[in-house]
């Protein structure tokens, strides 16, 4: 790696971890996008892939240590991961909080506005994901539409009602880490869609780490199975993958609908409502403004990403 790589020192990697953790903790904001904007996305994927291959082989002598040192990858990933965890802790403390102290996303006074913000973020990201398709055609449109319908229907099943069983947590860990590794997709948003965001964040703050073992195992499973497949698919079937992602995000807007009968997963499933009379006109206005704010923030991210691409050319 070049000596000019701006993530070669521990302090910078830690700072980038703080920023990436901030994004990963907010549903609708992608840690992968932050990594891309700050210029270390390829290095992140390369370092993770390096250790996956390293562990798979169990033969470190096969690695060319002159060109690829485990120490260099470790010096990058460890401070980055530390920064992510610290940032994630404080952001989710505000949004979710421990079980006995609900955060802003679990309180009916603030949650509708936050869900409105997330709804705006995801809605605005759809054209960007679709725009990543090279020469979009009818097949891409049909693929996106089908996956939008499938996602919408699946999210209505009891499987996604918020029950935090071992297999749901494992599934959540696999999908959320997959999303974190993709610029434009939010791992936290995947957890919201699956009804696990509040449970995982509150368990983290409660210190109930044993309850999260299936979730962590799902993340490990992703690294050893999904990550190589993801790299191959994005390289060889990029347009098809982006069409699938566009459809999934479009269908997931169902979960992000800001008007709900309940906002705390600890008190029951989060059920959408379309009865505006349950909300005051002032609340509805604030929700609408937060949707617009999320839309504007996402477009700012798109602008910064385009600027970064132009600067790197």
Characterise this structure.
This protein is mainly alpha-helical. Helices cover 66% and strands 0% of the residues. It is built from 12 helices and no strands. It has helices at 10-25, 31-37, 41-57, 70-95, 111-131, 138-154, 166-180, 187-193, 197-206, 213-236, 238-252, 281-312. Helix 1 runs antiparallel to helix 2 (31-37). The longest helix is centred in the last third of the chain and has 32 residues, at 281-312. The relative contact order is 0.15. The mean pLDDT is 81.
Strand content: under 5%
Structural class determined from secondary elements: mainly alpha
The radius of gyration over CA amounts to: 20 Å
Number of helices: 12
| Overall pLDDT | 81
> How many strands?
0
Helix content: 55-70%
Chain-wise SSE layout:
Layout: H1 10-25, H2 31-37, H3 41-57, H4 70-95, H5 111-131, H6 138-154, H7 166-180, H8 187-193, H9 197-206, H10 213-236, H11 238-252, H12 281-312
Helix pairs in contact: 1-2, 1-4, 3-4, 3-10, 5-11, 5-12, 6-11, 7-8, 7-10, 10-11
């Amino acid at each position: 790696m070049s000596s000019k790589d701006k993530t070669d020192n521990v302090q910078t990697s830690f700072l980038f971890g703080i920023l990436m953790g901030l994004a990963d903790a907010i549903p609708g904001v992608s840690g992968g996008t932050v990594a891309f904007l700050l210029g270390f996305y390829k290095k992140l994927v390369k370092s993770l892939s390096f250790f996956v291959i390293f562990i798979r082989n169990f033969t470190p002598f096969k690695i060319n240590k002159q060109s690829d040192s485990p120490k260099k990858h470790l010096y990058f990933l460890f401070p980055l991961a530390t920064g992510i965890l610290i940032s994630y802790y404080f952001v989710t403390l505000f949004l979710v909080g421990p079980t006995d102290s609900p955060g802003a996303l679990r309180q009916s006074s603030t949650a509708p506005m936050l869900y409105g913000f997330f709804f705006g973020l995801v809605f605005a990201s759809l054209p960007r994901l679709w725009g990543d398709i090279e020469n979009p055609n009818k097949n891409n449109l049909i693929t996106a539409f089908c996956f939008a319908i499938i996602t919408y229907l699946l999210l209505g099943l009891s499987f996604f009602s918020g029950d935090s069983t071992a297999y749901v947590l494992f599934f959540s860990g696999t999908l959320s880490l997959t999303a974190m590794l993709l610029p434009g997709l939010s791992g936290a948003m995947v957890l919201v869609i699956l009804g696990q965001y509040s449970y995982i964040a509150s368990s983290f703050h409660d210190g109930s780490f044993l309850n999260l073992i299936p979730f962590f195992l799902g993340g490990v499973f992703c690294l050893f199975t999904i990550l190589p497949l993801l790299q191959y698919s994005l390289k060889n079937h990029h347009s098809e993958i982006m069409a699938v992602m566009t459809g999934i995000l479009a269908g997931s807007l169902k979960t992000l609908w800001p008007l709900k009968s309940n906002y705390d997963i600890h008190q029951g499933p989060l059920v959408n409502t379309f009865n505006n009379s349950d909300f005051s006109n002032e609340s509805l206005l604030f929700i609408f403004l937060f949707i617009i704010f999320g839309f504007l923030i996402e477009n700012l991210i798109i602008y910064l990403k385009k600027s970064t691409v132009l600067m790197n050319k």
